[in-house]
């Protein structure tokens, strides 16, 4: 089967609101038929089973992340920077790039941010409550959305006085049109402008840190490898900003949505395993794409060189061959080898940071307040994304 260029669309079957909010029955039905299916409309394979998803993410030689290699995929605007980043590089180049920042994202390195994350969480929640006249706040607007941008801006070394402007650019880049008056073209234009503004901002910051090093991530990137090109440097900054924001937003939101449904709130001892279970049960990133570099046979079907494969992490995470009682939320599940942060070479660089942010945010929420759902399931609106999984807003009552 041949691949016909870039993968642009989300499976039709998942487009409806209910399916976006809860795609798991659909995954289960597909997986029961076969671990992988060819979709003639999108010209790609969808992979739903744990072992096969893991195999594809774990085998860089047969399955590449480099979309230009086989599909000619060309993202527009600010996203062209992303093509030069580790996310779209195969080894050995990937490993050299990732080495530059690896140590700054280790659990021991991000740990020092804990007091900052706690203080910012408290501030954001207090501000949101101040503005609310009935004690109900939108968890997304109040906390889950702003927190990750504030944290990564601080890590990169964006001075406090620039963070609001920085956040606005970053918000524009990830904004969707849904529910707004504006048409897609106008939004695209604004996003392009915001991308350019951010790139210029980073260009300046990089120049400043070259002149006058500080104790921040941009300085570290600049010093780590003097041979990095300007595009690579900007790519780094953009990737860290874009890869870590809405993903972490959705982890925090999916956690509170799930805890609310389950009438459960984790105590100190269960919080971290409960977060792992959210990453399994409602993975913020539902799918990752790969391109076959050679012909491969899976379940008697031939994936041809050049074919695109969509690996459904969210489906693999509900595979009963790997997880007992896969559709039940088990807050202290152990072991829990979920694929929520991917697997293998591209395993999420920011996983320790995302875990820390979620853990501290949920701790601050739960210790400062009693959190009660103020949403009706009928009111939940899914975010419109081809690979992210979450809701646009989640009203909660804080007492
Ligand atoms: C809950 C939050 C997050 C989730 C669910 C998530 C998920 C993922 C996944 C599934 C991948 C694998 C991509 C692939 O295999 O093609 C990935 C890669 C990556 N993530 Fe995250 N991520 C999160 C937060 C973050 C944060 C906070 C950062 C950094 C600030 C970050 C930076 C990256 C980078 C740089 C990569 C590429 C790594 C590589 O190619 O080696 N992520 N992430």
From TrEMBL:
Alphabetized UniProt keyword annotations: Heme, Iron, Metal-binding, Monooxygenase, Oxidoreductase
Superkingdom of this protein's organism: Archaea
Sample GO molecular function, one term: metal ion binding
Pfam families in UniProt: p450
InterPro entries: Cyt_P450 (IPR001128), Cyt_P450_B (IPR002397), Cyt_P450_CS (IPR017972), Cyt_P450_sf (IPR036396)
Coiled-coil positions: none
Family: Belongs to the cytochrome P450 family.
Protein name (Swiss-Prot/TrEMBL): Cytochrome P450
Organism: Halomarina salina
């Amino acid at each position: 089967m041949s691949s016909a260029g870039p993968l642009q669309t989300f499976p039709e079957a998942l487009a409806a609101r209910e399916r976006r909010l809860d795609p798991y029955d659909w995954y289960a039905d597909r997986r029961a038929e076969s671990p992988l299916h060819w979709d003639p409309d999108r010209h790609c394979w969808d992979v739903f089973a744990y072992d096969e998803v893991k195999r594809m993410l774990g085998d860089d030689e047969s399955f590449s992340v480099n979309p230009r290699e086989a599909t000619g995929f060309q993202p527009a605007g600010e996203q062209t920077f992303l093509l030069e980043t580790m996310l779209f590089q195969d080894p050995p180049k990937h490993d050299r790039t990732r080495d530059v920042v690896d140590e700054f994202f280790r659990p021991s390195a991000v740990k020092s941010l804990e007091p900052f994350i706690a203080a910012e969480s408290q501030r954001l929640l207090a501000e949101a409550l101040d503005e609310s006249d009935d004690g109900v706040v939108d968890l997304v607007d109040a906390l889950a959305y702003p927190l990750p941008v504030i944290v990564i801006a601080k890590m990169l070394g964006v001075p406090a006085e620039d963070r609001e402007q920085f956040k606005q650019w970053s918000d524009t880049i990830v904004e969707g049109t849904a529910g707004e008056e504006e048409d897609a073209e106008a939004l695209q234009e604004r996003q392009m402008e915001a991308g350019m503004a951010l790139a210029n901002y980073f260009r300046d910051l990089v120049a400043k840190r070259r002149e006058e090093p500080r104790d921040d991530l941009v300085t570290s990137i600049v010093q780590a490898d003097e041979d990095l090109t300007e595009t690579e440097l900007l790519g780094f900054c953009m990737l860290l900003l874009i890869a870590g924001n809405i993903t972490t937003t959705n982890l925090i939101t999916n956690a509170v949505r799930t805890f609310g449904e389950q009438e459960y709130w984790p105590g100190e001892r269960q919080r971290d395993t409960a977060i792992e279970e959210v990453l399994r049960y409602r993975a913020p990133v539902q799918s990752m794409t790969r391109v076959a570099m050679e012909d491969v046979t899976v379940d008697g079907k031939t994936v041809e060189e050049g074919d695109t494969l969509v690996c459904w992490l969210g489906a693999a995470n509900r595979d009963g061959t790997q997880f007992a009682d896969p559709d039940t939320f088990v807050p202290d599940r152990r072991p829990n080898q979920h694929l929520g942060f991917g697997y293998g070479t591209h395993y999420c660089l920011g996983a320790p940071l995302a875990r820390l942010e979620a853990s501290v945010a949920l701790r601050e929420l739960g210790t400062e307040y009693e959190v009660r759902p103020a949403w009706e399931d009928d009111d939940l609106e899914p975010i419109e994304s081809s690979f992210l999984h979450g809701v646009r807003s989640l009203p909660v009552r804080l007492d």
